[in-house]
Amino acid sequence: MTNSLVPPAGPQRVLALAQLSNSVGDGAYYTTSALYFTQVVGLDPARVGLGLTVGWAVGSLVGVPLGRLADRRGARGTAVLLALATGLAVASFVAVRGFVPFVLAACGYAAAQSGLAAARQALLAGLVPAAERTGLLAHLQSTLNAGLAVGAGLGGLALHAGTRAAYLGVFALDAVSFLLCAGLLMRLPAVPRPALVPVPLRKGRSIGVLRDRPYALVALLNTILLLRLPLLSLVLPLWITRRTEAPAWLVSALFVLNTGAVMLFQVRAARGVTGLGTATRAVRRAGWVMLAACVVFALSAGASLWVAVGVLVIGAVLQVVAEMGQSAGSWQLSFDLAPESRVGEYQGLFGTGVTVARTLGPLLLTALLVEWGTPGWLLLGGAMLAASYAMGPAARWAACRRAEEDRVRQPALVP
């Protein structure tokens, strides 16, 4: 893997540029959208939350069929169409004047985003050798954080202006960013559609990702580990302001720390992850580090102002170390355990972990951590550690299943 923060020229760099283009728009959108819908459109905050929850729930359901579409109809064309659909969905928010249109737009946006993520993974698998995929995904994660940071800065300018025109400018920026993303993806070579050879099961049935129990278990364990996602954006701000003496501005500082660390060190953190063994060990180490982070965060309650600040910074450092290790390990597992002919479909299921964690995580973690306090932090850390240790046996089960399917499939491939 290259030491550079920039991926090699060719398809890898084009994929990174596509990631950068739409992450800048997304960063601006995430910063401003809630205030636009509540203050400009006039929706009740609870209804905004409900609409987004419904939208991401729909997104989690369509990831698999849209990933299957990428496998069968071509990853590049599907990714381009879904990038255009995402831009159109963003633009439709401008016309929202009530709750029902908002929910419909949110469903379209989340569905297109989920499908685009699966199609991109299928495109990546078709263009990049297996040994280089985790390294490239580390580059893409660094690029994502850089783009989100730039976009958040642009969104901050819109928030400072506080006008309807400024908010609409953000939506226009995000929509255009997905059009640019689609244009960049068009520059990539077409990926030949793999032969979808079904694996025979009992009574003549063929296996799909929803029947692949070992892979589904790996995806479920990864979803538990992804419950860390709402920590930085929702739980820690509430924890800091309600349970500690630390100043509110620390929320922003911890966000900058996290995004900066991922941007600078994710590639290095993924360097040693090259196969199933190293991936499961990375996930297991991340589980221990995440448990330590939860313990440290719990210690910030009741501490004096500057002690609380120091403890929270240490906890945030531990969290981002765990995040980078868990991300690298899960990327490797998600590709290595999926059949090459069904990468989009399998990535569609694996990617639902993000939408499920973002949909259920805020409600679950707010009650567990902010309301319950220290016992909740310890329970979360213990659950993360248990899931990280269960990942090893689950991955070995899935690998054995994949090897068995390959043996069954082999006679069908012989003329």
From TrEMBL:
Keyword Zinc part of the UniProt annotation: no
GO cellular component terms given for this protein: plasma membrane
Keywords per UniProt: Cell membrane, Membrane, Transmembrane, Transmembrane helix, Transport
Keyword Membrane: yes
GO MF annotation, one: transmembrane transporter activity
InterPro entries: MFS, MFS_trans_sf, MFS_Transporters, Tet-R_TetA/multi-R_MdtG-like
Broad class of the protein's primary localization: membrane
Membrane topology, as annotated: Multi-pass membrane protein
PANTHER family tied to this protein: MULTIDRUG RESISTANCE PROTEIN MDTH, RESISTANCE PROTEIN MDTM, PUTATIVE-RELATED-RELATED
Protein name: MFS transporter
Organism of derivation: Streptomyces sp. R11
Taxonomic lineage: Bacteria, Bacillati, Actinomycetota, Actinomycetes, Kitasatosporales
